[in-house]
Amino acid sequence: MDLTLSPSEQAFRDELRAWLEANHPGALPREEQGSFEFRRAWQRRLHDAGWAGISWPERYGGRGASLIEQAIFNEEIVRARTPQLANVLGLAMGGPTVIAHGTEEQRQRYLPPILSADEIWCQGFSEPESGSDLASLKTRATRSGDGWVITGQKVWTTYAQHAKWCMLLARTNPDAPRHQGLSYFLMDMEQEGVQVRPLRQITGEAEFNELFLEQARVPESNIIGGEGNGWAVAITTLMHERATLAFGLQVSVQIALQELVEHAERSPGSNGRAAAADPLVRQRLAQLMIEAEVLRLNAYRGLSATMQGGVPGPEGSLAKWHWSEVNQALTELAMDISGVRALAIEGDGVGDNNWTYRFLRARANSIEGGTTEILKNIVAERVLGLPRMR
Amino acid sequence: MNFQLSDDQRAIKRTARDLLASRYRPETVRELADDERGFTDEQWLELAELGWPGVIVPEADGGLGLGAIELVVIQEEIGYALAPTPLLSTVSAALLLVAAGDQEQRSRWLPSLAAGETRGTVAVWDERSGWAPDGSELESVDGRLTGTKVAVADAASAEFVIVAGADARHSLVRSDDPGAEIAPERSLDPTRKFYTVKLSGACADQLRAGDGERITRAYATIVTAVAAENVGVAQRALEMAVAHAKDRKQFGRAIGSYQAVSHRCAQMLLEVEGARSLCYWAGWALDHDPAVAVRAASMAKAYASDAGFRVTAAALQVHGGIGFTWEHDLHFFLKRAKANGHAFGDGRWHRDRVAELSGI
C-alpha cells in the first residue's frame, strides 16, 4: 500500500493546479444563456491548453492520460471551484463511446468539436415510460431511403436546448428480443422533427428537457456500433458516466462539508451558542466527515483495483449510491442547522451559495444516472452473486 | 498511489486466513466460548510462533517490527475466523509499553511478550474516565494504585495489566499482586473473556517514558486493530447472509431474489467496504502519515463500531428464525461485533473525537 502520489503524479497535479489558479475564469453569470456561453468559453480555454478530454488517445486530441491522472484532474477541477464544462456529456460519455464503438471516420468527424465545445452533446435514453427499465424504450426508428426516420419521446434530456448532437437510443427492430432491437444514433438536434421543451424541476430551474421526435431524420452513417447493437453501446456510455464520476463527487462533498461546518459555526443553536456546539449537530457533522472520507478512499481503492486487475473492485459499484446518500444527508443537516431561516429562499434561489437550493437539488441525486434501487440490484447481482430479481 | 496490499501483506493475510480457519472451526469457537479461560496453550503457542504477539513490536525489542497495516491485516482475519484469543490484549499492552516504557521496562517485558512467553492486557474504563485514557482519577500513592477498572479483556490469563491512571500516566500491575483482585464478568461476548480488576493498594510500576503524543498514537493503533477485527466479523456475517439468501427458498424461489433481502445485503456490503477502506487508511497513516493518523483511527473505529453491529444484525434478519437460535453461529458474530463496538470507545465517543480533532 502506498497512498501518496508518485513524483510524476505529483508533478502532474501541481502543473494542473497552477494552471487552474492562473486561468480560473471567475464566477458564473447568473442568467442561463450567458452562463452556458461562459462555460463554453471556459472549456475552450482548457482545450487550448490541452486540458480537455485528457484520458482520450493523443491522436484524437487527448493526452492519453492514465487513470490516476484522470482522477487527479477530476479532483482538481472541482477543488478549484471552476464552472462545470459546457460539454460535460460529450466529454464524459459521448466521446468515449465514439472512441470505443465508432468508425475511424466518425471519430475524425465528431471528436474534435466535442473537445472544443463547438458542438454540445446531450443524451436521449430515458422515456416517460422507460426509466430504470431502459430496454423497454419505445422510440421507433424506421428505415427510409439511405437513412432512418425517428418518432418518439425522450425525457430528462440535460442540455438539449444547447446541443447539436443527441446520443439517441431507439428501437430499430420491434420483433427482436428487446435488448437486441435497439440502435445507437447520433441525431442532429437542429432539424424540424426535434422539439425541445424545458422541464421545470422542484428547484424552479430547468436543467433538463423533454424531447419530442416527430419524423426526425438520421443518416445511415450516424449509427454508432452498427444496427441492432445499441444496447451494448449504451452500456459503454453508462459505464463511462459512472466510472469517471467518483473523484469529482467526493471532492465536491469535501468542499460542501467545509461550507457546512462554517454554516454550523455561524448559525445560532440553542442557549446562545453556535449550532456547531450542539452535541447532535457535532455527531452528524463527524459522521458526514467519516462518510466523505469513505467516498474518497473507495474512489482510490476502486482506481487501484482497476489499474491492477483491469476491472473495478466491489467498492466502485457503491460510489454513486453512497455519494447520493451522503450528499442528501449533508444538505438535510444544513437545513436543520438553518432552522426557520431555511424557509427563506435567498437571492434567485439557485446556486451553491444557497442551502435551500442544494437541499432540493440533492433529492435528484438518488435518481439521476441510475436510481439507488437499480444500483443496489447491480451490487446484489454482480458483486454478491445473488439471484436475479424477477 | 496504490491502495492494494503488498505481496508480503497478502501472504500474511493468506496464512492467517488458512491457519485460523483450520484452528478455529465453528465447533472450536463454541467450545472456547464455554471455556472459562477462552483459549488453549497450544493455540496461543501457534500464534506466538508466527510472531503475531510482537507483530508491531520493534525488532530491537524482540518483535517483528512490522507496521500497523500488518496488524490490521491479522486482526481482520482474527475477526473473520471469530477466533477467541488474547492476542489483541497482548498486542495492546505491548503497544503501550513501546509508547511509554523506559528502557528497563521495555527490556524486562517486550521480548517475552513478543515471543508469546508472557501475556499482558490493558485496563482503561473506570467510572470516572470512561474510555478516555487521560480521564482517570486513579492516583498512584507511594507506588500503589487503588480503584476499579471494568471490561478488562483477558486479565486472568495475563501476567500483568497496564492500567490507565490520572493524567494519562500508565502503570504496570502484576496480575498476581496481592492488591489486585480479578473477577470474571458475565459478558455479552463469550468469545472474549472480560474481567473487573479491583485494585486496593496494588503495587504499580509506572511507565516512565511516556509522553501524551506517543500514548495517543498507541491508543489510535489499538482502536484501529479493534475496528479491523470488526471488518472481519462483518465480512464473515455478510458472506453467511449471502450464502443463506442464495440457498433458502420461500414462495418457490431463493429469498435473495427479493429486493427486500438483496438490497439489505447490498447495504451490508457498502458498510463492510467502507469500514475496510477506513481501517486500511488508518493503518497506513499510523505507519506513514502521523499528522492524520489519530483522526483516521477514530474515523475507522466510529464507522466499524456501528457497521459491525448493523451488518451482523442485518445478517440475522436475513437468516430469519434460525439466526436467532443458540445453535446457529451467527449470534457469536453479533455479540463480538457489538462488544468490539464498545471496546476503547464506541461510535459516538469516536465521532466526538473526530469533531474535536477537526476543530469543531
Total number of helices of chain B: 11
Averaged pLDDT of chain B = 97
Oligomer: heterodimer
User: Major sheet of chain B: size, sense and barrel closure?
Assistant: 7 strands, mixed
Structural class by sheet pairing and helices of chain A: alpha+beta
What is the C-level CATH assignment of the largest domain in chain A?
A: Mainly Alpha
In the CATH hierarchy, what is the architecture of the largest domain in chain A at level 2?
Up-down Bundle
Largest sheet composition of chain A = 4 strands, mixed
From the 3D structure, determine the CATH topology of the largest domain in chain B. Answer: Butyryl-CoA Dehydrogenase, subunit A, domain 3
What labels describe this entry?
heterodimer; A: 390 residues; alpha+beta; Butyryl-CoA Dehydrogenase, subunit A, domain 2; Butyryl-CoA Dehydrogenase, subunit A, domain 3; four-stranded mixed sheet; 11 helices; B: 360 residues; Butyryl-Coa Dehydrogenase, subunit A, domain 1; seven-stranded mixed sheet; two-stranded antiparallel sheet; 9 strands; 13% strand; globular
Describe this structure in a few short sentences.
Helix content of chain A is 47%, strand content 13%.
Explain what you see.
The complex is a heterodimer of chains A (390) and B (360). By secondary structure, chain A is an alpha+beta fold. Chain A has three domains: 7-86, no CATH class; 121-228, Butyryl-CoA Dehydrogenase, subunit A, domain 2, CATH 2.40.110; 244-383, Butyryl-CoA Dehydrogenase, subunit A, domain 3 (Up-down Bundle), CATH 1.20.140.10. Chain A is built from eleven helices and eight strands. In chain A, strands 1-4-5-8 form a four-stranded mixed beta sheet. Chain A has a four-stranded antiparallel beta sheet with strand order 2-3-7-6, with no helix packed on it. The longest helix of chain A is centred in the C-terminal third of the chain and has 31 residues, at 279-309. The model of chain A has no long low-confidence stretch (mean pLDDT 92). Chain B has 360 residues and is an alpha+beta fold. Chain B folds into three domains: 7-114, Orthogonal Bundle (Butyryl-Coa Dehydrogenase, subunit A, domain 1); 120-206, Butyryl-CoA Dehydrogenase, subunit A, domain 2 (Beta Barrel); 212-357, Up-down Bundle (Butyryl-CoA Dehydrogenase, subunit A, domain 3). In chain B, 54% of the residues lie in helices and 13% in strands. Chain B contains eleven helices and nine strands. In chain B, the strands form two sheets. In chain B, strands 1, 2, 3, 4, 5, 6 and 7 form a seven-stranded mixed beta sheet that branches. Chain B starts with 6 loop residues before the first helix and ends with a helix. The model of chain B has no long low-confidence stretch (mean pLDDT 97). Chains A and B meet through helix 7, helix 8, helix 9 and helix 11 of A and helix 7, strand 9, helix 8, helix 9 and helix 11 of B.
